[in-house]
Structures are given as C-alpha cells and as structure tokens.
Amino acid sequence: MLKVEHVTKYYGDFKAVDDLSFEVKEGEIFGLLGVNGAGKTTTFRMIMGLLDKSSGEITLNGKNIDYSITDDIGFLTEERSLLTKLTVKEQAIYFGALKGMSNEKILNRLDYLLKKFDIYEYKNKKIKELSKGNQQKIQFITAILNEPKLLILDEPFSGLDPFNIELFKNEILDLSRKGSIIIFSSHRMDHVELFCKKLVILVNGKSVLSGNIKDIKESFMKKNIILKGSIDIEKLKKINGVEKVIEKADEYDITISSKDIAKDVFKFISKYDDITKFVVEEPSLNEIFISKVGESYEK
What is the pTM (predicted TM-score) of this model? Predict the structure, then answer.
C-alpha cells in the first residue's frame, strides 16, 4: 500500500503541496487530478523520492521510499523523456539496467511488450525515427519494463489514437489485476473514468475533493437528463429546478438542481406524444472537476 500522510512541500515561501493525504492499495488505480500548477508533479516527485518533503510521510508497504525500493517503481512523465539517438533496444537496456534488471530479462520483456504493442519491427530503429505515437508506446514500455509494484502515469495517452488508447488501457488494467499500485493523472476526465475508482482533486496544492468516484457522483447535487423529442423548450426552462437546457443535434441535455426535479420534468414531458428518450444521468466527472476547481478559485 502507498500512503501519503499530511505531506506539505515548500519552495522557499511558496507552498506547492498543502497537507495532502491519500492511500492506494495493491491493485487499485487512483486518480490524482488538477489543473496545471496544482501540485501534481511535485507530489509525484516526492512519492518517488526525487524531492524531499517539507513535512509529512510517504511510505510504500510500510517503508520510506529510497534507493532500496526504487527498482519497484515505474514513471511515465507527461514530457518526452526518451534518448532519441538510441535505438529502442538500447533505450530499454539503459532503463532496465537502472532498475537492476539483467540483460536477458530486459530483452525478453522488451520482445513481449513490442509484440503486444505491434511495434516489434522497430526494435533496432532509432527513437527519433519513430512517430510521436510510437515514441509514446516506447516511453510507456520503458516505464513498465520492470513490472513495477508502483506505477505513476502522467498523461499516458498523449498523442495516441483510439486504437492505441485501447492497447494502453488493457495493459494498465492487466498490471492492476497483477497487483500494481497505479496513480493515474490526466486532464481528460473521460480517461480517468475508464480506470479510477478513487481520486483526489488538487487546487493550489490542496485537496478540494477526494474519495470514491461513485460516492462523489451520488453526493453531487446536480443531475442531467437526456431528452429526445419535440417539446416546448421555453416552458421546460421555466420549471423550478431546471438550471440549463442545451440543444444538441437531435436531443436535449438538461441540467437539474437535484434528482427530485426529474419527476417534475417527466410530468411535463408526459403530455407529448413523440418522446423517444428520457434518461436521468449523474453528473460527469468533468462537470464535477470544473465545479470544484471553479469554487476553489472563487474563494
């Protein structure tokens, strides 16, 4: 288990991370979210032991994270961190050696992953000769080469098409099933919802929302109704508790203040004959993120 307990980090007088606490169990995928400058990268670096904490404690399976256990950690950075003049094979050998892996184990694992990601033919190509998408695959492969017990993924899908996102998704889920602790960060909330059951949202280094995503959605008051059919929109907007109506190509997206308003909307539309869709949805994680971040900046 990874435990982050009351961690604070100062750069001079600037507080980059403010009393942050969370824990991630084996096999869990945890979302660490926030806008640029929220403190995510600083938190990642403290978890990996690259930065000292100002206060608090970070432990992996009860031990402080130092060079004795960094071989069990994998990190995919948002920025490209590849040595582009090396071949894919040379890059893997270099990073694998840094993790204490033998050449034989590195090459066996590399061959397995290159085949899995359908880029085996690039094994002896220089990284600078690869497309951005294939470079991202190599960066991901080097991050998981050592089958890490703790894996930190910062914007792992950058530059990928939907097909390759699916490949990454399956590998991440496979690592989770094998017991890896995974911290996932992305500005794409739909990607977060693919994996994460728990999350923390940071604003100015401080947690403004944390917990189980299902519980967060249930506790968030606003709900959405998806409606398809011909209705009097102006009358619909006047129903008490209807906050917003967005007209899309062939349906309406209605925001209501609470799920109790859904029955009033249903009563209103029931007199229309051509309603083909009426679905009450919980708010998206994207809506919750925008709401919580906006609230924090307004305070």
Answer: 0.83
